[in-house]
Prior knowledge:
about 15% helix, two-stranded antiparallel sheet, alpha+beta, single chain, 2 domains, about 150 residues
Amino acid sequence: MIIEIPKVSAEGAQYTGEENPSILGLEDNQLVRVEGPIRYDFFVQIVSQELIVQGSLNVKLQVRCSKCAEFFSTTLADLSFLRAYEITGSTSSVDVTGDIREELLLDVPSFPVCSDACKGLCPQCGKNLNEGKCGCRPPSGNDGWSALDSLKLS
Ligand SMILES: [Zn+2]
Ligand SMILES: [Zn+2]
């Protein structure tokens, strides 16, 4: 997204639109799929020698649950985008694309979970426990303790 300085009025202006999600560079990401354009809703203003851009961003994603490994839809919303760009008399435009990218990538959850109730995968057979129980016996508490004990002894 490029803001042309001569077009920004003294009172400021609302910039609403869409940005191609390819700017996020997530095409090869195994954990995240982008589902639509990046939408921005910015208020742009020149205050003394700075271009102030503030507003919100959102993009629809499919992310892979860190517990059950299934993809689920979510919207990444950032309501607090705020950047200031120094401008001089010779600045004709400011490119905000890199900062949009940075802001949204910071908001991608590292350990997304599809639901608070997600049961995850069986640690023994790998079955998705949201789809039903597997035949494995749950590990007993005693095994956990004895493993700890042997650690202490060694
Ligand atoms: Zn899950
Ligand atoms: Zn199992």
